[in-house]
Amino acid sequence: MTFKIAASPHTHQRRTTQQVMRWVYFALIPGVLAQTYFFGFGVYIQLALALLTAWVAEGLCMRMRGRPIGHAWQDHTAIVTAVLLAVSIPALAPWWIIVMGTAFAIVVVKHVYGGVGQNLFNPAMAGYVLLLVSFPVQMTSWPIPAELAQIQVSITDTINLIFTGFTSAGYNLEQLRMGIDGMTMATPLDSLRNDLNHQLTLTEALNKPIFGDIAGIGWAWVNLAFLAGGLVLIKQKIISWHIPGGLLVGLLVPSAIYWLFNPDQAITPMLHLLSGATMLGAFFIATDPVTAATSNKGRWVFGLLVGFIVFAIRTWGGYPDAVAFAVLLANMCVPIIDRYTQPVAYGHGGRS
Amino acid sequence: MTVVTALIVLGVLALAFGLVLGFAAVRFRVESDPIVDQIDALLPQTQCGQCGYPGCRPYAEAIANGDEINKCPPGGQATINALADLMGVEAKPLDSAHGEEDVKKVAVIREDECIGCTKCIQACPVDAILGAAKQMHTVIAHECTGCDLCVEPCPVDCIDMVPVPVRPDNWQWDLQQIPVKNVESSH
Amino acid sequence: MSAATKAIEAGHIWTFPGGIHPPERKDRSNTTPIEVLPLAKQFIVPIKQHSGPVGDLLVAVGDNVKAGQPLTQVGINNALPVHVPTSGTVSAIGPGRIAHPSGLTDTVITIDADGNDEFYSFTPLADYTTLSRAELLDRIRQAGVAGLGGAGFPTAQKLALQRPLDYLIINGVECEPYISADDRLMREHAQTIIDGTEILLHIAGCEKALIAIEANKPEAIAAFEALLPNYPQLALRVVPTKYPSGGEKQLIQLLTGRQVPSRGLPIDVGLVMQNVGTAFAVAQAVLNGKPLIERVVTVTGDNIAKPGNYWVRIGTTVAELLNQCGFNPVADSKQEQRVIMGGPMMGFTLPDLDVPVVKITNCILVPSNQELAPAAEEMNCIRCGACADVCPAQLLPQQMQWLAKAKDYDGLEQQNLFDCIECGACAYVCPSEIPLVHYYRKAKAEIRNIAREKAKAEVARERFEARQERLEREKQERLERHRKAAEARKKAQAEAVAQGGDNPQDAVQAAIARAKARKAAQAAAAAKQNQEGDDE
Question: Which of A44, A212, B68, C50 is found 20 to 30 A from C260 (Cα to Cα)?
């Protein structure tokens, strides 16, 4: 009788990459539901388009690189990239936006750099930035939250809008985004930055229908839903709390200080935390293991850096939101963060 | 006058910097091995002469004088790469005119056939063969470099080059190569 | 007394970074007392079961031997002897598969048991304090005691280091899943372990011992708690359950907050550690004179009908052991059975069952493929850092994995590869199922090999240069000899001439003249002959 020869350890925790990724996209469900509730069924269509593109792009890349295709589909990392990009872009954006972004994320950002685990930049965010700088109009045309909209968009209208640009009644996206006052409605962050730039005080700027009691209508709930999903991930030990913690602290502390000294001209810390892609970024994007720092100390620094860059760009930069830029900039700093936060190995003079 | 001042100033400066540089050259002198020693340190020291020189040191001197770096089969590609790195030249494949890369071997004398002619003792470049005229010879295995030079002179062909055996202490963790034999089921 | 020492005295338990909590599954084997199995018919005793040199053989094929009789001797190289497990006849001495991950062979002594189990005579010792330190160490060495925790380092050698010691640590942590050999030994033989600890303290010249037990062994803790009030120099320390808290370096960190310096020894920080099994063996060796010929082995796993702990004579084959414990191999032809010597984290698989139980064998694990699923295919690293989070040595496993794959050995040494204790925590958590530890082991072996080759090349160069020098010297000497001989000859001639003898130079001249004359005469004769011929 012969026996199997194997290397130790002979036991394994059995949490595969696939399972890790599955937890990540399951944890995105509350956020996706909240987005659907406020911004319509477009989210699902974007998701479907992103997944299809990712699946095809991944397969093609693996074939061109002469690697087993099934292998790549199995690890589910492409699914997470697709889902993250789909929930980041406006729900009613034209179909080619998401297709282009996802294809770029998978083909250029991931596979050109050597596939899973080798990419320097977060694929979803690199795709997002490409889209944002190339198609600023489409990428900032968020639908207005359902409760404020004049015209409710049906499923068929959503499909028509995404694929043709017009609803069956002939409205285009721009018209749908008109508020009751006949003005095009921007996202809370967009609107605030415009108004503050036009020398309005914070109180005046907040005096718009898009702002609810705590933060932007819809946006606050979407952020809270992502927060809930993120907490599940921490509870399940899929992600460590260091990056989200660092990011939120890095955003909250400077914004609070700035707001205290400048109450009329600054975005409130609460708005910072609950608008835009803050929570999505903190729990799902910055925590991408491939492109984030390795050690816990490094993760702290990485999170703080992302948070601070988000604050800086939102306050002084040219874009209303900044999570994607912040993540990419921090990605670039990862090697140096890793270098200076490497833990002292046992027996090399560190203290226990 | 100004020209003189300028000359004096420049002269003083030159002197000062010269002194500083001179001091630095003495104080911070870096002792580096001569290039021949550095090359010799990379060679495997089998002293086999397959490169065409009578030993590693002579080959090291030849490389320092511009000979090719790919003439050492016992060192193999790893040595060629290291030499290329040191000499700042392109690494090339081993020159097969000098032999092929092979597993490490050690010479073993079939002692009952040895006639005690001492020819192998004279051939051994590292004095790793023990014996005297008309007495049986034997190889000090852990001093043997596996150079092959003792095989040729032996008049009775009693020297074998055998691969160095794998022992638990030099085993390379090749789990795939564990010999698995079939035994009867124990029940 | 410094604050740190006060904390140690007060029983403070520090912590170590990382670590994992794999399923323990110790209750399968630790609920029944240690059993004694019937003796096997044949025993295979490898002559090397420890780290260090091997002793010279004392027996030959055909010798009748008794249990406990030494098979090899300490000799001049201070080797550790091995002993006869039971009475019988030496039937073979030669290569045989040894208990090593490589499955390679080494010299083994085969003994056919006669079934009488007669013992060699041992000399008990009533009061060990009457013997000198050197005599006690010799007694332990002669008994063949090596560290039973896993490394197999000769115990006497560890104790022989005479350096200031703060504490002796007795390691009863046994953090590997499944294994309960030390647990049962502590429950059933706490008194002997304490006796052994006192002897170790006496030899080491140390004042205090800390006995460390993991919190998941309440019965063993109770056994010691009942006895320890009588021994003020011994203290019990309960450490939290976490793998690998039983690792030497980790346990030192837990109990004292100190770190053994990289590539150093515990004694560098004033500590010495011994396993509970070793303490037991030391007590047996010193008090009863009984050599190490048996140990407790846990036999466990889903495919064992009668899991438990057994007193096993060293040299018993795994086949025999499994036979007696009921072995049901995996029936599925596609998935092979694994037989692991040691635990699931650090044990190694056996290629076949002819391997004998040796001094360091604490467990034979025969799992089903459901309880310990075979390793899945290796996937790409996603840099999740889970490995770095669990590494008790604070290394960066993923970084080292890339360096190992790239064969960047300098980089690996910079990343402190040799501080890796190969505990397997990183590979346990890796979501991509990368066999990380295996890469490190290979790289370590390769680095050691390169170092060995380098040292050998250095020796070869020295020998080559020495030989060149010798040849040159011999040549010079030869020339010198010739020169001297020539000079002596000249001198002798000159002297001879001066004394009126023949000048050899003249003799030469005379010889040349003679030769010329002869030639001339021959020529003349020939000419004459020709003339005569013409005349005819």
Answer: C50
